[in-house]
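Take a careful look at the sequence and tokenised backbone pasted below. I need to know what the token row says about the fold.
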Amino acid sequence: MAIDPRRLRPSELCRLVNSTPLGTVLDERQLHRHRTRAGFRIGDGRHVDLFRYAAWLVELRHTPRPQAEGDPYEKLKERAAARNKALSLAGRDIGQLPVVVNPERKAQAVGDFRFFCEQYFPMTFHLRWSPDHMKVMAKIEQAVLRGGLFAMAMPRGAGKSSLAETACLWAVLYGHREFVCLIGSDEGHAMDMLESIKMELDGNELLLEDFPEVVYPIHCLEGIANRCAGQLYQGQRTHIGWTAREIVLPTIPGSKASGAIIKVAGLTGRIRGMKFKRADGKTVRPSLVVLDDPQTDESARSLSQCATRESILAGAVLGLAGPGKKISGIMPCTVIRPGDMADNILNRDKHPEWNGERTKLVYRFPTNERLWQRYAELRAESFRRGAHGEEATEFYRANRQAMDEGAVAAWPERFNHDELSAIQHAMNLKLQDERAFWAEYQNEPLPEESAQEEDLSADQIAAKINRLRRGEVPIGCNHLTMFIDVQQSVLFFVVAAWEDDFTGYVIDYGTYPPQHRPYFTLRDARPTLAAVTKAGGVEGAIYAGLEKLTGDYLGREFRRDDGAQLRIERCLVDANWGQSTDVVYQFCRQSAHAAVVMPSHGRFIGASSRPLNDYQRKPGDRVGLNWRIPNVQGRRAVRYVIYDTNFWKSFVYARLAVAMGDRGCLSLFGQRPEEHRLFAEHVTAEYRVKTEGRGRTVDEWKLRPSAGDNHWLDCLVGCAVAASIQGVSLPGLSAEPGRDRRRVSFAELQRRRREHHG
């Protein structure tokens, strides 16, 4: 069939040109593009003129193309970047803010903290307020709006932490405070509080309704903190911050909370110099500080830690606002033990500026003790049978009027679903654990009971002061002793004066290098031996420290009350610490005071161990009251003393237990017990356990699980051992134990031998 090359259908044209030896050179898709581009120049709507099509291709091939400006690929990338930037900006910008749903509610809460709590946090504060709550909220409102300090001790579960967190939100949302600092007992505790506040800002729909200028940008983050740096509002950055340690509210024009900061810190962490540079260039410092339970169970039981935290509170915390400005403070706290930090802050005589408020769960207890005793028996019997106290509850229901007589509960609405009243709830808590009830719910903790009657508390030891000046020797003392406890970081030492009957006086103690702090531990001691001595190793630092310390004290004369000058007669140096043994022996041999210093080894001799006095006495040995100085043997040509630490710790405790003025009493220098808080903690860091074995009863001393350092206890014990070596003895105790042997002549020995063989 003949074809007309000037009137070819598109399919025919493709088959025709592809039939050459060149193979496939054209497809219908490409031909369609060419027909669209060339138009009617190469054919009509249904046919294509092959000659015109070829002419058009030749013309297209030989027509010079215009030179492009720049690299086409770079232009392509620029267009793609511009497109992506536009998309990114559209995604980063939060758009228009929602309108305020209830302006009247928002306006009413600006100066009414109670209304703010009720309207915006109905799930948290769903019970009726108690009179104590009303009083506390009024104090919080005053502290936030007009300034001041306020400490509150409320029963556990009364909502003190929730009120404090809500006060933070109220302060920043309305612009009452632009920088709020949350301080906990440690940083982890404070971060938990911040997490609770973040949850309210991110999930409270009521706050979103009335505070869209603050909460809506936070919702736009969708929980992705990495979006903070790029978030925009009307093309401007919001400078929002959302980290584990701080919240920076978005910078929105017209918002009272614009750029407000909530930051957390631990009480013993980095507090000083806390400030923040806002987007507008203004530097702000905290104007409101919230301290939620600023003490731990461990610190509450430590007098020195309580004093340290009080000093941090008075200095670093209350000085956060900067020079010339006052800071407002809210402190919800719990009294853990009498005399702890919370107890002192709440005391208006000691700290009137904190306006301490101490509330209770029960202000007056029921007067009918007989019925409540029966109730306790029924409740205990029910629990023993595996029930849940239903019989006791029915008994209370039947006798409620008589059992409630005389009782006054602080919060009548506070009781569990299986209880009938707040009085029953309080009595159940009291029956469950009375000591915990008085501490956690009444804020009046009971005095701590010692495990043994003869045990002394840190308060009792710190109170045994003789009102002498540091370094002053009483007139009756004839002996001065010193003990040095060797550690890698510092050297602990005690100097004691003794009368001949073991009446003792601690005239000086401390560390080298001096720490110049009322409270420290071996772990955080600064400066250290290595820093002060500039020695290359541990042994060199210890040697240089011993040389400096003994040079200061062993070469000094101590003045006695009658004008006599006394020197330290015996200085024992602890040689038990592993890396220090050789260097201590070397120092004692080479020291300028070699006649006075002596290495010492304390030995734990328990009930099942062999007492020191049972060992055979060898020629050259000195044996005393549970101490022994062996003759020189081996490569260490220095005499040393071994002593029974269990016996001498009990001995020192007995001296501390003797009343002031009695013979054998051991007392401390100074006029204020607060000076000796850390020393008293060292001395009470161990407890005794009476153990029987080998026919004898022995006090075995062990370190308390919650205790810190005990180095000054070791020093005090060492001073007593040194005094015994110098001849000091307690009336009734022999310094040379063992039976007396009379001298026997050689003739008497010969006579006894003849009688024995005869």
Remarks:
- The CA atoms of residues 364 and 750 lie 89 Å apart.
- The longest strand covers residues 504-512.
